[in-house]
Amino acid sequence: MVVFASICAEMRLLDKNKYPHSLPASVRNLRTKYKQYMENGYRGLIHSNYFNNHARKVTANVEHLLLSLCVASNNPYSEWVWMQYLRFISGEIDVANTKTGELFNREDFFDDKGEPISISESTVWNYLNNPANKLIIDSVRLSYHDFNHLIRPHYHREAPRFSLSKVSLDDRELPRKMHDGNRVKAYYAYDVCSGVLLGAAYSKKKDTDLFVNCLREMFRTLDGMGLGLPLEMEVENHLVRQFEEDLFKAGVVFPFVRWCAPQTRRKNTPNSLTNKRNTAILKQFPF
User: How many C-beta atoms lie closer than 10 Å to residue 24's C-beta?
Assistant: First the structure.
């Protein structure tokens, strides 16, 4: 009793702006909270209403079911999804989880009183047009090209602040043609921060030897200038993928290796529907 009284007195003297907390200030409630902590750990300090979905009518299961119905091959409107949901809870049809292929259990869509969870057409429309859910629906409905260029989040790349923190390697064709009408193939290694050309190789063919010769030139440049290895290498897939398990495996020669997508990098536009929130949503599909 004396210990809890002393703790409560000390807590009243704490600056809540500097040490925010929600512990009770009375001896009786503090003792109860301490007992809950000893029995349940940190879970005992969390209020029981935190993440409480008991009053939520459209549960996570219902939301997943609506999304699975919405990504059907006929690209249905919300009215059709609503009607199919009613048919499902009435036992007329079965619905499979789009991600796992497992059939939804109809008993999961009944409340505590044994009544089916009924929702309105407007509720279905609101959930399907929720930005987070709409992003997931578009990822299934649209083709790879359309989704990748219209919806998918663009890369938000941050420029390095130190030289040799990232070296980017890529190939290109020189603009002038040779006498036979073909172009000379080149492979370059640039320091991204300073823009310095560390290695270059040229050939009539774009093959593995072209890439290896560029890498050799880069090492010669670094050794001649008395510099160490780059921290990160940025490479493309076409010619470098065969070195994925040895030379370009992160931690073997270079601490970090970044594999670029086989396409032209898109610019970040302020009006595009791409941001960090959308990226996080795409990493965790709810169905």
Answer: 15
Range of the domain at 107: 60-150
> What is the sign, positive or negative, of the torsion defined by CA atoms of 170, 176, 177, 179?
negative
CATH number, domain at 197? 3.30.420.10
Residue 232 has pLDDT above 80, yes or no: yes
* Residue 53: Cβ within 10 Å count: 9
pTM: 0.47
Read off the pLDDT of residues 199-221 as tens digits, 9 standing for 90 and up.
999 999 889 999 999 999 999 99
Instruction: Tell me the two tokens of residue 4.
Output: 């809890």
Which residues are CB-contacts of 150 (< 8 A; sequence separation ≥ 6)? 142, 273
- Which of 132-141, 229-238, 276-285 shows the lowest mean pLDDT across its residues? 276-285
Domain count, the chain: 3
Pairing of strands 232-235, 256-259: parallel
Q: Are 256 and 231 in contact (CB under 8 A)?
A: yes
In 3-state terms, what secondary structure has residue 208? helix
**pLDDT tens readout for residues 68-90:** 999 988 989 999 999 999 999 98
128, containing H or E segment: helix 121-128
Kindly list the strands in the beta sheet with 232-235, ordered across the sheet, starting from the edge strand earlier in the chain: 197-203, 183-191, 167-177, 232-235, 256-259
Which residues, at least 6 apart from 104, have a Cβ–Cβ distance to it below 8 Å? Answer: 61, 65, 68, 88, 94, 95, 96, 97
Q: Same structural domain for residues 8 and 33?
A: yes
Q: What is the pLDDT of residue 271?
A: 39
Between CA 17 and CA 190 the distance in angstroms is 49
Position 51, amino acid: F
